[in-house]
Specification:
Number of domains: 2
Radius of gyration: 27 Å
Helix content: 40-55%
Order of helices and strands: HHEEHHEEHEEHHEEHEEHEEEEEEHHHH
Strand content: 15-25%
Length: about 400
């Protein structure tokens, strides 16, 4: 069963959630709406009901001024977001032609590791997408109700690759009444979803900034630096006898309270110079080498690390409390582990911004069409809309296509 242990607890939990999704769909199969993509390999499953409609109605009546303010803000943000994503897509295409290995502006977000996809760990992926979709659709519904536009149904569903893997949420405003509403009201309804994702992302960022310092101070040693790892066997540090996890006290008699100071001192040295490195394990006189990427720079061959868990952290917080802290806020020992809050920030902002792209399948496309229909007759508006939508579809295709050739 070693393969099972190698999966890791988070991947096991993600597989468990997918299993329960599958069981639920089997039990409720008579009540499902199935939209086929490629037979039963790729398809969408919807479970329609009245979920959250009473709450939308209640909030629309209780907070009309707040929702109206949010709606106006959303319209302004939608045009700013459209301009921003448009600029990023165009710039990325030029960069990819002119700069080797330039990063794309957009790429698929998936719970699998691939060179052409932005990887999100499976458990974080499932939870984040569900939260993002729920907030997004609830915002559409509550703004629609604020302006008296009926919401006929709501529900949830899944995009399935044979089995359900990607959770969805949806609301169904009355399309006939929505299209007859004032232009500003239509724009407000369409802009509400992505705007709510951006607002949630930045609110979580503010929370993260407010609580991260006291949390990390309670968990991590912030004084001094450790060495990790010592690089290849021929590095000056390795040849000089330095080992991983040694606590650095000083270099050439200068105290090094943090990694920046450590690197600053070394940057002023030249290849061939002798440095006196003092650690908690001993002292070393090491001749600096030439940096592998720039021969004119000195090279010690170590990486300074200031992010070590305090020895008594588990005793004070408990094993479960410490694990939960890392799961929510990430581990500073691993820069790629940003925790649930970090992923929610990143994905809310990224997905929210992408939804402002003027494509027919996302909110930005609907916002553009409503805007054009306000200024032109419907036939002319749809012609312009189709051209703009096709242009941005090509930009996205080019952005993603370059990923397969890098």
């Amino acid at each position: 069963m070693s393969w099972f242990a190698d999966l890791g607890i988070q991947n096991i939990l993600a597989l468990t959630i997918v299993f329960f999704f599958t069981v639920f769909l089997i039990i409720k199969r008579k009540h499902l709406i199935i939209q086929k993509g490629i037979s039963y390999i790729i398809y969408i499953v919807l479970f329609k009901g009245k979920y959250g409609l009473a709450r939308m109605e209640s909030w629309a009546k209780r907070f009309p001024k707040l929702i109206s303010g949010f709606a106006v803000f959303g319209i302004a943000i939608s045009y700013a977001g459209m301009a921003t994503i448009g600029y990023l897509l165009v710039k990325a295409v030029f960069d990819q032609f002119l700069i080797p290995n330039a990063p794309p502006a957009v790429m698929p977000v998936l719970p699998i590791k691939a060179s052409w996809a932005f990887y999100v760990p499976p458990l974080y992926f499932i939870i984040c997408i569900f939260i993002i979709a729920t907030v997004h659709e609830f915002a559409h519904g509550i703004v629609a109700r604020r302006y008296g536009i009926p919401v006929n149904a709501s529900g949830f569903g899944f995009i399935a690759l044979i089995i359900p893997v990607l959770p969805l949420a949806f609301v169904e405003p009355d399309e006939k009444k929505l299209t007859k509403a004032k232009t500003s009201q239509q724009l407000a309804v369409y802009a509400a979803g992505p705007t709510s994702n951006l607002v949630l992302g930045f609110l979580l960022m503010a929370v993260m900034l407010a609580v991260s310092t006291p949390i990390y101070s309670a968990v991590y040693d912030v004084e001094g630096i450790y060495i990790t790892p010592v690089e290849n066997v021929s590095s000056p540090a390795r040849m000089g006898g330095v080992s991983e996890d040694e606590f650095v006290v000083a270099i050439d008699g200068h105290a090094v309270p943090n990694g920046s100071e450590f690197l600053s001192i070394l940057s002023k040295k030249s290849p061939g110079e002798i440095v006196h490195l003092e650690t908690d394990e001993g002292t070393y006189d090491i001749q600096l080498g030439n940096h592998p990427e720039n021969a004119s720079q000195s090279y010690l061959g170590v990486y300074p690390d200031t992010k070590r868990v305090k020895a008594d952290a588990e005793e004070r917080m408990g094993k479960t409390g410490l694990a939960l802290t890392f799961w929510l806020f990430g581990s500073r020992e691993n820069m790629m582990d940003i925790g649930l809050i970090g992923w929610l920030i990143l994905l809310n902002i990224g997905i929210g911004l992408f939804n402002f792209t003027p494509l027919s399948i996302v909110d930005g496309g609907r916002i553009l069409l409503v805007t054009l229909e306000h200024w032109f007759d419907k036939k002319k508006a749809k012609q312009i809309w189709g051209i703009v939508s096709a242009f941005f579809l090509i930009l996205i295709f080019v952005n993603i296509a370059f990923l397969f050739f890098q």
